[in-house]
Amino acid sequence: MTFLMELYKTYDENIDQVGVFKKNKYNSEYTLLPISHITQTAHVEVTIDQEGNFHSATIIPSQDRLTIIPCTQESASRSSGSAPHGLHDNLMYIAGDLAQYTEEFNNKEQYSTYLKQLRQWIKSGFATKHVEATYAYVKESSLINDLVKSKLLHLDENGQLINKWERKHSSLISEKSPLYSQVEIPNINKVFVRFNVLGLEFPWRDKSLFSSFIEFYNTQLGKDDICYITGETLPKTRMHPRGIRGSGDRAKIISSSNTKSIRLFGIADQAYNVSYEASQKCHNALKWLIQQQGYVIDGRVFLFWSVDGRGLPTLFDNGFDLLNKECTIEDIKSHLQSLKEENIIVNVLIMDSATIGRMSILNYKHMSLNDYLDALISYHTYYKGEYSTWSNNEGKYVKYEGAPSINDIVEVAYGKSADDKIIKDELTRLTVTILNGKRITRSLQKMIVNKASNPIILSEQEREKAWGVANALVEKSH
Known about the structure:
Layout: H1 2-13, E1 22-23, E2 29-30, E3 37-41, E4 44-48, E5 54-59, E6 66-70, H2 73-76, E7 89-90, H3 91-94, H4 98-101, H5 108-123, H6 129-138, H7 143-149, E8 192-197, H8 207-218, E9 224-226, E10 233-237, H9 268-271, E11 274-275, H10 276-293, E12 295-297, E13 300-305, H11 319-323, H12 329-338, E14 345-355, E15 358-368, H13 369-382, E16 385-391, E17 396-402, H14 406-414, H15 420-435, H16 442-452, H17 460-474
Parallel strand pairs: 4-8
Antiparallel strand pairs: 1-2, 3-6, 4-5, 7-8, 9-10, 10-11, 12-13, 13-14, 14-15, 16-17
Helix pairs in contact: 1-10, 5-6, 12-13, 14-15, 14-16, 14-17, 16-17
């Protein structure tokens, strides 16, 4: 499928962005992930020396908790069973002394498989000093004891680990650990710990450690087969990443769990076969693009991108958004013309979850950058209106021309309190309509005129917007 090949190329083209954290328009941190890695919210940082001796343990400030961790195919989508991450993990996997302090959790299997995987990494010859030091510490089974001594965890009057804080514990412990007040930790065994080694780079920022795990994990993958994305013979996978729109997202764009629905093929691989590397690159590029420049409305993703990662003007921008200053339609046309370049492809992807576990591609358009910009120029020219908005740069209201953004059109037509499904469906229709060079439907125009004709039900700001959008959309139609 073309969009997967474009995502694969996007990853390779922006490989220098791997592990580089930035903040998006919502002030959320994001990065392009290395393959075989995910991000996890860590709660505690345990620092050890290079021989694996405990040094200290601290609670991580909320603004610094996003951590890149190595993972396997199984651990990235685990919900039960025993599937350890590569290095950092929660107490259920890394605390060998957990069972000594509580009868609530039996983690013998999880701890054993975690240590076994670390040993395999070390024996592979790819391990770094981080891995060796962490293994030396964790195999001593002293983590809970160290966290208790550091006053991050507490014991009750019977010497048992306090799992959930109750009022009675206040008489026993004068200063409660903040870990017991965090809503994202339902049970204390879910405390996520990342390891830091004195004298070495932070492992969640260390690209040599990323490469170390990737090389090790490549030796653990299944048999080779032809990848339908790259055409190369590489280790294949049927376990594709989830979490495309966020950590809690379970919808997948590639899935073959329901083999009964594959009626024309004997096995799922005959229908569609993707290598592990291609799957990782495509999904990581998609997550990165969504976090960086995607528009998400009630789970529906609107994504406009080119392989080189350049910022693109979109239909969600009005005239002022394009230039961030007072401007005329001629200014907008000149600006969009200046962005033209030969042999650059723009991808427009709209997707939403069909079910909890399935992602549906609702629309995909693959067009040249110049054709894309021509569509925007045509839209802003044909539906030109005059508006005013507050400019933070200039500290005053300024005037601008151009077409309204498609979200302004939908907001005027349906109101701010409209059902999210109605809003995202209309945004989808507008995106497809405008990029295909078609005109906005009369039925939508009529809704906007009706809204603008009843100013008494609108606030002053809503009234100004409704009149501006109505004048822009309707003037050319009569």
